[in-house]
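Supplementary Methods, section 5.1.

A reviewer requested that the exact input to the structure prediction be made available. We therefore reproduce it here, unchanged from the version used in the analyses.
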Amino acid sequence: KRKGMWDDTLVVFSTDNGGPVYGNGTAGANNFPLRGGKMNNWEGGIRGNAFVSGGFLPPSRRGIKWDGLAALWDWYATFSALAGVDATDHRAAKASLPPIDSHDLSAFLLGKTLASPRAELPIGTEPRLSNLSSAPLCASYNRATPYYDEPSVVGDEPKPLPDSPPPGSRCTTVSALIVDEGKGGLWKLLTGTVEQAMYTGPAYPNSTTDEVSSHFVSHCGDGCLFELRADPLETSDLASRHPQRLARLRAKLEAYEATAFNPDRGGNTAAACEHAQGVYRGFWGPFMR
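The structure derived from this sequence is encoded token-by-token as follows.
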């Protein structure tokens, strides 16, 4: 403010995911009253808090709460729009790659609309066994690619990419979907095996804590269906009561999987660490020439 910068300043603070509740509570977080936590797609793992401040924010937008559908990666398109920059990845488009999944939230921030530009949110995962017909074959993934898997951390997530997948089996990187139908509801579809299907108490961990994720698993298969406005705690699976909506959301999920960017990411390379420790002095950065 002393430098006259405040009126042109926008401050955005956001979590990237829910808190980790695995490791029998030793990870140190608590997402009460939501279900699950980091490394899974329950609301405790993906529903995050954020706030926006700064002199650039119009007075009419200050001190309000908004629960519209938005994702962390929507800030890319939002910041681009505020800076007057085209967020389109034209080089990717020329290479026939799918467009970025980022929505511009600036109209809401500036008070021009109350609605979110995002009505659907596909939710990713590391490669998992799936019966989605649009998912790639498990055998198509590069086995040299390192995916997060830390056996010493009990209950963080199931191991990605099965060691010996059945012939012809498919592995997806898009396993869930949220669709905002306005007055028709905020619907969430989960597919496959979802661990951390558990709830913490107001104080967690405590003397009775026994969080081992393999003991708390939902086998959603073709889909578990929740209406998040009425049931943000994901207590009631409505799949059997809404078969048509379940089929509609699965069709959307199939379509998202079909356009998911899933390149061969290669294997470990010493150059990445060498650049991080040397050139960038402790930070990750480009390392390929």
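The first strand starts at residue 11 and ends at 14. These observations are discussed further in the main text.
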